[in-house]
Specification:
Rossmann fold, about 40% helix, 2 domains, about 10% strand, alpha/beta
C-alpha cells in the first residue's frame, strides 16, 4: 500500500469540548471536518451507536414545517454545519463560527475513506437509485480495498411496519456496519433514521444525501472553487432548476422571523457584529458520552505513516484553501 509523504497533523479538537450554538431555530456544533473525523473514529473504536446530523438552510426550513424532525436533532450526538450562509450569519451574531466549520461529505470524504481503508471499517450505504450505490461501491472498493462496503438502494417502503423496511433493517444488521450512511434526501433520510434507530445495530449513523450519487457519477458535484466562494447553491440551482428553485428562492424567506429574533438577542447581549475566537462562548457544551476525548488523537499515524492519497484525494486536497476547507451547501 502507498504511504503519505508526511503524516497528518494532530487534530486539535480532541483536547477540547465542542461548542454547540443556537442559530435560526436550530443548533450546530462548531467543528472542522478533520475534527469530525477524529470524533467519528473514536466512536467507531468504542463500538457504541452514535448519530451525526447536519443543518443547512433547507433543514432549518424543514424543522419549522415538520415538527417531528425536532426529535431527530435532539437525539443527535453531533450536528455539523452544512451551509456557508448559515455560518456567515452565525458569525454576524458574534458567535465563534468560521467558514472552516462547514462540514459536508465532500469536505471530509478523502480523510474518511483513508481511515476506513486503513482500519478496515465496514461501511453500509442506504440510498440512491437501483444500481447507483452498487456502482459507487465498486469504484470506492477499487480505490480503498481495505474497506468493506455494503449497499441497498433507497427505493423501498420506509414505513416502520412494512415488510420492505424490515428486510432493509435485517440486511443492515446482518452486515454489522461500523458506519451507516443514509442518503435518501431530506427529510426522508432523517425521519427514517428517527423511526429505525432503536432497532439499528451499534454503529455511527450519518445522513449524507447524494454522497454515492457523486461517487457513481450519477450527479456532478460543484467545482470546489464555487464551494469555497459559497456559490455551490448556484451551481446546483443551474443544474436542476425545476427541483431546486423553491429551495433556494423561496424557503430562505421563512427564516426571516428567526433571523430577526437572533439579531435582536445578539444586540441585547452586545455581541452583534463582534468577531469572537473559537472559545468565545461562555459555556462550550460537550456532546454525547464520548466528548471530550483526551490525549491528542493523531489520526494520521497508525503504526507508521498513513497511506498516500488516491488521485481523487490529491485533486480534492489540492483545491482546498490553506486556512480552511470547502464552502457551499449539500443535498
Amino acid at each position: 500500500m502507498e504511504r503519505r509523504r508526511s503524516p497528518r497533523p494532530s487534530v486539535r479538537s480532541v483536547d477540547r469540548p465542542r461548542t454547540r450554538v443556537a442559530v435560526l431555530g436550530g443548533e450546530i456544533d462548531l467543528v472542522r471536518p478533520e475534527e469530525v473525523m477524529a470524533i467519528l473514529a473514536a466512536w467507531v473504536a468504542a463500538g457504541a451507536q452514535r448519530l451525526i446530523a447536519n443543518h443547512n438552510l433547507h433543514s432549518l426550513y424543514l424543522l419549522r414545517k415538520r415538527p417531528e424532525l425536532a426529535a431527530f436533532y435532539a437525539g443527535a450526538d453531533l450536528i455539523e454545519a452544512d451551509s456557508t450562509p448559515l455560518l456567515a450569519f452565525a458569525g454576524l451574531l458574534g458567535l465563534p463560527a468560521r467558514s472552516f466549520h462547514r462540514c459536508t461529505y465532500l469536505d471530509w470524504r478523502p480523510h474518511f475513506w483513508s481511515l476506513a481503508n486503513r482500519h478496515g471499517w465496514r461501511v453500509f450505504y442506504l440510498g440512491a437509485a437501483p444500481g447507483v450505490a452498487q456502482r459507487a461501491a465498486e469504484r470506492l472498493s477499487a480505490d480503498y480495498p481495505g474497506t468493506v462496503i455494503g449497499v441497498c438502494d433507497g427505493y423501498f417502503d420506509a414505513e416502520p411496519t412494512s415488510a420492505d423496511n424490515t428486510a432493509v433493517i435485517d440486511k443492515i444488521t446482518a452486515f454489522a456496519p461500523d458506519i451507516l450512511m443514509v442518503g435518501m434526501g431530506m427529510p426522508r433520510q432523517e425521519l427514517w433514521i428517527l423511526d429505525s434507530r432503536a432497532v439499528l445495530p451499534s454503529c455511527v449513523i450519518l445522513p449524507v444525501g447524494a454522497a454515492f450519487d457523486y461517487e457513481a457519477g450519477a450527479q456532478k458535484a460543484a467545482p470546489r472553487w464555487m464551494g469555497r466562494a459559497g456559490l455551490e447553491w448556484l451551481f446546483r440551482l443551474a443544474s436542476d432548476p425545476r427541483r431546486l428553485w423553491r429551495r433556494y428562492g423561496v424557503e430562505p424567506w421563512s427564516l426571516v422571523g428567526p433571523a430577526l429574533a437572533d439579531l435582536r438577542q445578539a444586540h441585547r447581549e452586545r455581541r452583534l457584529g463582534r468577531r469572537t475566537g473559537s472559545g468565545g462562548l461562555p459555556v462550550p457544551q460537550p456532546v454525547g458520552e464520548a466528548a471530550p476525548i483526551q490525549g491528542g488523537l493523531d489520526l494520521g499515524v497508525d503504526g507508521g505513516e498513513p497511506a498516500a492519497p488516491t488521485q481523487v484525494e490529491k485533486d480534492l486536497i489540492a483545491e482546498r484553501p490553506k486556512a480552511g476547507l470547502v464552502d457551499g451547501e449539500k443535498a
